[in-house]
Design goal:
Layout (H helix, E strand, L loop, with lengths): L1 E3 L14 H9 L7 H11 L4 E4 L6 H15 L3 E5 L3 H15 L6 E4 L5 H9 L4 E4 L1 H9 L8 E6 L2 H6 L3 H10 L5 E6 L4 H10 L4 E4 L10 E7 L5 H8 L6 E5 L3 H13 L4 E4 L5 H13 L4 E4 L12 E6 L6 H8 L9 E7 L4 H11 L5 E2 L6 H10 L2 H4 L6 E3 L5 E3 L11
Parallel strand pairs: 1-8, 2-7, 2-8, 3-5, 3-6, 4-5, 6-7, 9-14, 9-15, 10-12, 10-13, 11-12, 13-14
Antiparallel strand pairs: 16-17
């Protein structure tokens, strides 16, 4: 059974949420449920298994945290949340704090890169909610620190990302040890056949909720594409950064390049931090906390952070390198325009990346408007324009205009954008 959710202008009353949790939501200023919350919470409260297909930034965490806390307040047992990355696990744990602590429900966050001893101590305090990455949870299960038979509710968050990162065998192993009589919720931005196989094998008549079709980009994100030679990217970046006063999240394809870009941004006079797999957990946490607090204007990240950064108020996402996978484009730009705010996404494409651009446009079902920055010379763009695919240099009959950031934009996204020369 598939439900399509629309935007709902309603509050949290009438969703089956207990009065005490409604008071907590009021206290933390949660007033209007997002579409995934509006649809998933009542079904979860009824004890149904749920498959939620929704992009990042749509409020998925509270869509499962609210029902889990309410269930644990009423019966014995443990709630287990599996997440693909350390950063996402930490953020889920933080989201549970406000809801769980008024009920005396403790949480434990089990992630790689953090000391086992501290996690063992946390598990000995009998937490009712355990948030974990698959590998570290198996480590604790192997040492008898975690008792899977006590799980009454399981959440698989960012399930497609877990499969992309190669966690399918670990997830399958964990599922074998969990009680058959449990409630299961699975959330995913996309729904490949492997996800459906997990649902069919490990869930009881799950109700599917599709909040946005696969590839749908966040509504309030404006998008822009620059076609530029690789060696000119830093120069373009130096022209763009002064035009944005808020937080900037920049994506690099490799950790080696992330380090180089971070150094270059610091040389431009900006505070910048990097987050990728070569950074320790403490370094990644310091970078993320510094980005949230405003200490760092720019956070340079690889795709390990594409779904793990939950920061409201990111003004600009820059795809310094296009992602290898078009799906990751959607996840990356979903880091801006969160919680009702507007945001902007800029992508740099080299002239030989027309195929990558077409894959992205096919997925998001729209053309990316192509721009030329007035601060760069004709020569810096000319070779890119000459070797770019034909649509980039095709003349448009629409007048070009400057957007709010001073970039040259085609006046109609419906027309074929041209590469200004």
């Amino acid at each position: 059974m598939m439900h399509k959710a629309a935007n709902q202008n309603q509050d949290f009353f009438g969703l089956g949420i207990a009065p005490k949790i409604l008071d907590i939501l009021e206290h933390i200023k949660f007033k209007v449920p997002t579409p995934i919350q509006f649809k998933a919470i009542p079904l979860a409260m009824e004890g149904k298994d749920v498959v939620g297909i929704a992009q990042t930034g749509t409020g998925k965490t509270h869509a499962f945290a609210i029902p889990m806390v309410q269930l644990l307040a009423q019966k014995k047992g443990v709630g287990l949340v599996l997440a693909p990355t350390r950063e996402l696990a930490i953020q889920i744990d933080e989201a549970f704090q406000d809801l769980a602590y008024p009920f005396g429900i403790k949480t434990a966050c089990l992630i790689g890169g953090a000391p086992m001893h501290d996690q063992v101590m946390a598990l000995r305090r009998s937490p009712r909610v355990v948030i974990a990455t698959p590998g570290r949870l198996l480590d604790h299960m192997g040492q008898w620190n975690f008792m899977p038979e006590e799980v009454v509710m399981l959440v698989l968050d960012e399930a497609d990302r877990m499969l992309d990162m190669g966690f399918a065998p670990q997830v399958e192993k964990i599922l074998k040890f969990l009680p058959k009589e449990r409630q299961t919720m699975l959330f995913s931005a996309t729904i490949p056949k492997e996800i459906m196989q997990i649902a069919a094998k490990h869930m009881k008549l799950p109700v599917s909720l599709e909040i946005a079709p696969s590839g749908t980009t966040v509504e309030k994100v404006t998008q822009e594409l620059f076609i530029i030679r690789k060696e000119e990217k830093l120069k373009l970046l130096s022209k763009l950064l002064p035009q944005y006063h808020g937080a900037v999240l920049l994506f690099s394809r490799t950790k080696h390049n992330a380090r180089k870009i971070t150094r270059s941004i610091r040389d431009m006079g900006y505070n910048a931090a990097e987050i990728h797999s070569n950074r320790s957990l403490n370094q990644r946490r310091e970078a993320l906390d510094g980005f949230k607090s405003g200490k760092y204007k720019v956070l340079v990240a690889t795709d390990i952070a594409a779904r793990g950064i939950d920061v409201t108020g990111i003004e600009l996402v820059i795809n310094y390198d296009l992602p290898e996978d078009a799906e990751n484009y959607v996840h990356r730009i979903g880091r801006t325009a969160r919680a009702g705010h507007k945001g902007h996404a800029i992508s740099f494409a080299t002239p030989d990346q027309s195929g990558n651009v077409r894959d992205i446009e096919k997925l998001i079902k729209k053309l990316l408007p192509v721009s030329k920055h007035p601060g760069l010379t004709h020569e810096q763009f000319s070779s890119a324009a000459q070797s770019a695919p034909s649509r980039y240099s095709r003349p448009s009959h629409g007048r070009s205009r400057n957007d709010s950031h001073g970039h040259s934009r085609n006046s109609s996204q419906g027309r074929k954008p041209r590469f200004h020369r």
